[in-house]
Amino acid sequence: MGSRRRSPWRLGARHGVEHREWLRNGLTAVAATAAGQMLVHRLLQRIAAISEELADINAGEVYGQIAQHHDPRQVAQLVGNINATLELLDRERQFASNVAHEIRSPLTGLRLELEEALLHPDQADYPRMIDEMLHGLDRLEGLATDLLLIARCRTAQAEWAEVDLCRMVTEDVLSRSDPIPVELSCTPGVMINAMPTQISEVLTNLLNNAQRYAAHRVHVRVGRTGQVATLTVSDDGPGVPEKDKERIFDRLYRLKVTPRRGGIGTGLGLAIAREITKAHHGRIWVEASPSGGARFVVELPLAQVRIPAEPGSH
Description:
Order of helices and strands: HHHEHEEHEEHEE
Structural class: alpha+beta
Shape: flat
CATH architecture of the largest domain: 2-Layer Sandwich
């Protein structure tokens, strides 16, 4: 048989299909490239806009945030992280401003007392003046101590240890000399992994607060609930208003209630207690006490139980 000759029409049709396929692929590649370039251009424009907004915020003196647009997920996440950082920096700025005011107030009082004594040395009430100056110096010392403790909380790399919370709390309570005796109820063997000095600082701040506001009773309890160790400090004072139950943990925030004894604190003790508790993966809050005052509750994870290896096991 002779070889079958291909029809010129069929050859032309096949070449036409191949040409159209090549043209379609080329157009698709061009469109994809153009779309990619457009997307890159839009992203560059958005990043430039974010940079300009951030520069304006840095140049200003008031708190600002970068506006959220209908951005791709990664850009929206970037803007969210920047805004969270800006919020944190603004809180730090406000804290620094408040601390400056807290330091300036006793310094101004000291200066006025000294200037008055210099102007009228024969009329100065020196015992009263010295008493006022010592009070101002006590306040400055308290602020400096608490500020140093906050700095240490943030950078603390102290030795962690397995701590018997009941034993530690008992020793700390017995070492104090309080105007109101502390009632203690304690479940033995409540073990936590902690930096002991910092947990003692939490207890000290809570007890100082309770002694300041209690009428007749302060009670401390150590126990466990499930996998959580609990430490509560209760008093029979005026309690904490509902609207202030979260704010009292803010730095330099003070209740409007006048303490029964001990004077007004620095406004940092409860903030320090929260920072330490969070660093120990725990939490702290305040609620109404059964005795009518405030009850501060601290929860901390229990130490992992170590099961002794059986003899001969590896």
